[in-house]
Amino acid sequence: MFARSGIDIPTQIAMVVPWIISIRLDRKLKSICKLLIQAAVYFIWKERNSRLHNQTSKPAHSVVKDIYLLLRAKLFSLDMELRAHPSATQRNRPYSTTTTYLSLWFEKIQG
User: Fold this and answer.
1) How far lies 66's CA from each of 26, 42, 47, in Å?
2) Which domain of life is it from (predicted)?
3) How many domains does the chain have?
4) Which pLDDT tens digit goes with each residue over 56-109?
5) Is the pTM of the predicted complex or chain greater than 0.90?
């Protein structure tokens, strides 16, 4: 999921937390990375439980699609929250000139 972004995420789960703490990224892009990792862990765990307890499974592309849909909805709500309650630095400039979470998502992650 990070292939298009140029961000190298660790392949071992134990290294993800130290990586996300130490990585130097734009605040919004770092938030997107955190949300993406959280959503991936959640949906993989949910798929695991479905396979173990219900003997049902989804193809990998379907799980990725679910992750992307959840992320886009969350990022849209974050953008709407910023639009409704701009910070002091954003009040002096129009909303359209600021980089939104969704624009970063489509530019760096999903494409």
Assistant:
1) 25, 11, 11
2) Eukaryota
3) 1
4) 999 999 999 999 999 999 999 999 988 888 765 555 555 445 789 999 898 888
5) no
C-alpha to C-alpha distance for 106 and 68, rounded to whole angstroms: 11
Backbone angles phi, psi at 69, to 5 degrees: -65, -45
Q: Where in the sequence is the domain holding 99, given as residue range(s)?
A: 3-110
Q: Quick check: 22 and 30 in contact, CB under 8 A? A: no
What residues contact residue 5 under an 8 Å CB cut-off, 6+ apart? 108, 109
Whether the Cβ atoms of residue 101 and residue 75 lie closer than 8 Å to each other: yes
68 contacts 58 by C-beta, under 8 angstroms: no
* Number of other residues whose CB lies within 10 A of the CB of residue 71: 22
CA distance 19 to 101: 21
